[in-house]
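User: Can you fold this complex?
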Amino acid sequence: MATGAKKGVLGLLVIGIVGGIVLWGGFNWAMDMTNTEKFCISCHEMKATPFAELEETVHFTNRTGVRATCPDCHVPRPWIHKIVRKIQASNELYHHFVTGDVDTPEKYEAKRMELAQHVWASMKKTDSRECRNCHKFQSMDLEKQESRGADAHDPYYWEAVDGKEPSYTCIDCHKGIAHALPEGFDPTWNTPGEG
Amino acid sequence: MKKRIVTLLAVCAVIFTGGAIAGAVDSLRMGQDLQDNAKEPAKKKQAVVQGGIERSYKIQPPAIPHKIDKDRIDLKANTCMNCHSEKTYKQKNAPKAGESHYTDRDGKVTETVASRRYFCNQCHAPQVVAEPLVENTFQGAK
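Assistant: Here's the predicted assembly.
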C-alpha cells in the first residue's frame, strides 16, 4: 500500500473514533437531559396533574427526605428498554403538540382510567422492574413493617397460603400510590386472588 | 337627671367588675397574651395499634388504629375502601364497613358505600400517640 493511502486510512480511523465518541456521548447526554423531572414537568399537563398529585404521596414527602422523580418510576434503567420507552414517548409528544388530548385537568380526568391502565399493564409485564430499582425484598425488614404489610411481603406466608412461589408483583397491590386513582377503580384490582 | 346618673354608674360598675372577672378566668390560652404568637404544638405521630382500638361505647364508630396520612378520599376515589370494602376485606384481613354503610337515606341498599357514609373520617378518627392533657377518669362501657 502507498504511504499516502496508509495515511488516509489512519486519518479516517481517527476521525471515525473521535466522531463516534462525540456523537455517542452527545446522544446519551441528550437522552439524559430528557430523563429529568425538570424536563417532564416543563409540560403543563405533567406539572398540573400527575406531579401535583405525586407531591402529596410518600414518594415525594416522607420521613427521610429521599424521594423518587418521574423517570425513576417511568423510565427503565437498562439501556435497551430505555431506548424503547424513549421511542414510545414520541407518541406523548404527538398528543401534546398535535391532539392536545389531556391539555386541561378535565380532559386529563376523562382519560385517567385509560392512561392508568397502560401504566399498570406495563408494570405488570416487567414484573414491576422500576419499583425494584429501589425496593428489594432482601432489604426489607419485615419487623419494621406493619403486620399486614409484613405478611404480604413474606414469601413464607405465601407458601403457607397457596403452597407456591409468590407470583404477584408490586403493582398487583400498590396501584394508586403515587397518583390519584381513576374514578371507577374497583378495590379488587389491588387485591390479587380476589374478585 | 338623677335617675340617669344612677343608671350610668350602674353600667360603669358592671363593665369594670365584669372586666375584672373576665381577667381572672384562665382561658384555654393558658395565660398567654392575645398578642403573643401561639406556642408551637408538639409534633405527634399517628398511632398504630395492633388489633384495633376498643369501642368506648356501644355504637361508637371505631377509631382508626393505623396511619391514614397518605389515604385519599375525594370525589373520584376512596382509598380506604381498597381494604375495607365488601369485596376485599377478607383478603386484606381488615374489618368490613358495616351493612349500615351500604344503605342510603331512603333505606335502599347500595352497591358501593352510600354517599352519606362516603367520607370515612367524618366519624372514624385516627389517633395520635399523646398523653391526655388533663386527668380523665372516663371508663368506657364494657
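Residues 75 and 86 of chain A are 8 Å apart (CA to CA). The radius of gyration of chain A is 23 Å.
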